[in-house]
Design goal:
The structure holds three protein chains of three kinds. By secondary structure, chain A is an alpha+beta fold. Chain A is built from four helices and twelve strands; from the N terminus they run ββββββααββββααββ. By secondary structure, chain B is α+β, with helices and mostly antiparallel strands. The chains are: A alpha+beta, B alpha+beta, C alpha+beta. Chain A: This is Proteasome subunit beta.
Amino acid sequence: MSKQQANWSPYDNNGGSCVAIAGADYCVVAADTRMSTGYSILTRDYSKICKLADKCFLASSGFQADVRALQKNLAAKHLSYQHQHNKQMSCPAMAQLLSNTLYYKRFFPYYAFNVLGGLDSEGKGCVFTYDAVGSYEKVGYSAQGSGSTLIMPVLDKRLQSPSPLLLPSQDAVTPLSEEEAIDLVKTVFVAATERDIHTGDSVEIVVLNADGIRREHVELRKD
Amino acid sequence: MSSVELNQPKNSLSEIQRTQYPYVTGTSVVALKYKDGILMASDMGASYGSTLRYKSVERIKPIGKHSLLGATGELSDFQELLRYLDELILYDNMWDDGNSLGPKEVHNYLTRIMYNRRNKFNPLWNSLILGGVKNGQKYLGTVNMIGVHYEDDHVATGFGNHLARPILREEWHKDLSFEDGVKILEKCMRVLLYRDRSAVNKLQIAKITEEGVTISQPYALKTFWGFNAFQNPTAAAEGSW
Amino acid sequence: MFRNQYDTDVTTWSPAGRLFQVEYAMEAVKQGSAAIGLRSKTHVVLACVNKANSELSSHQKKIFHVADHIGVAIAGLTADGRVLSRYMRSECINYNYTYDSPLPVGRLVVQLADKAQVCTQRSWKRPYGVGLLVGGLDESGAHLYYNCPSGNYFEYQAFAIGSRSQAAKTYLERRFESFKDSSRDDLIKDALIATRETLQGEKLRSSICTIAVVGAGEPFHILDQDTVQKLIDAFEIVAEEDVPAAESGGADDQSAALEEGAPADQGAAPDEGVAPMDI
């Protein structure tokens, strides 16, 4: 064994879970607020949700420094977009931009796991889910991050969305009402907190609908 | 490690030295918000591996009028950072236009530096704490060698994260007086002194408020080494050593 | 136009110590339709006159949103103004990226002026042909600057540039002392009146002017046409009752001010007879 010394990695995993659910006329985006490294909690009140445009929210977990850099990058690009086009970017446009931004750093990736939720130009809920290097898909609901393996199957069972193999393709939005969807989000976060040590402290929920944007905060287990 | 080596171009043009491990390091810094501002504490030791190489190093420095910086980790990298910040503040003052960089701006700038250097696989080997007050707004944040950063009511680097923050979470509240704040910090530093082998009993506590920065003269904490577990550490674990 | 042997490139001095190319660039500012700016302690209002090139075309945009705390009104070559506002936007974005806070207005103005100055000292470049009124807010308060092609910049309480701007300047010089404590709406009203002064016999309508505001708690934005028309109607109605007198009085004041000229010392107002290098 060679000399014992401190070593470093350019990446860390700061944990956390993100969920988004799209409905016919609403969209719910949620993430817990714990930030951790290894077994240590760094802070209990760090928001993983970022407002990218009027009707477009991004929830991301993974390596916090990369996540923040990604958010700042998108914010700057969105500002340029507004200067050039005199309007807010639509959610599907932002989804494509996010994919391109992630893919651009394909060989030194942003270690970030994203769900993008918002309303499309018709006011219908839409959710996009990503991997770290930019491949993405439009879905009706999604979960990402350290608790995603616990949350996703629950969403699959409860939301029973039509198979993407059906022809002609059917809308991916969930049949749940807004209240039911918010309740479901609270349930899955309470459940994930029980078993995932990187998820907890509190969950921040953003609800988008025709009336505008509403935020909720629910406390979770702190241990 | 292997992935790091793969990413390093080996042609002669880019044969530059990078910090792959630290040499002389300082240990924890602890800081908290209190009624009128920010309090920050750190000891004055710096280790060369397991040798206590320096015993009178100031690891808390004022940055401009509104900020206070504390550093854990490689001492030379900290000094390089101070050179960057001196230049930054100098140029900021040279505008002489009534605008000045506050703690939030300095913290964000530091975060950009740290993250940028990690992107070049040439990190500054530090965990930093930045505290300050500007326009009645208290600010306390931290950033580490790979750019992970956050704000909180109390923060700590290195061992402080494991040993001091549980105490802070237990005892901190937002209208802490100066005296109570110092008491909590001393309690944290004492625990660190007992349990962190690279900590030394010579520390400074710094205060920053709307009025400005004051850094205390170095002083020592009263310690008690007569605890049974200190005198006979293996008594409760017979046969383990 | 007169010509002389010292005006064929920017880097050649005349024996009298003038740079003619730079002065010609300053003339370009006066050709453009007027732009006006005024500020109180908390707000800056920018206004401009929109002139369409032909009956068949619309007018060009002369007020630009640079960042939420900075806006700019231009007179002169619109194309140059557009390029410079793009530069200013990107500087604001970059500063915000590094410091997570808005770029102080005065610093942006210096960067902009330095950029313009470079063009007065390079043989292969041409000075920008545009004057910019930069209005914005930062921690030291509300600011209004005028940047000109020579690379000079000045801070103002109120200013007007472009064609027939002298009339607006005269109005502003008469009133500027009260601006400091003006309300936002009074500032807009003064901007509209100053704009009207620059119109030659034409009636002030929302279709021929643009108004923009930035202030405490109010990010930079251009007022929409309906709002502007309502504001115009509001004060035109008041004006009809008591202003015929004031208006004739105004004309007197104006000619008086012109006679007194520069000695009246609103140091701001450049005397048109003197070499424009003073600016």
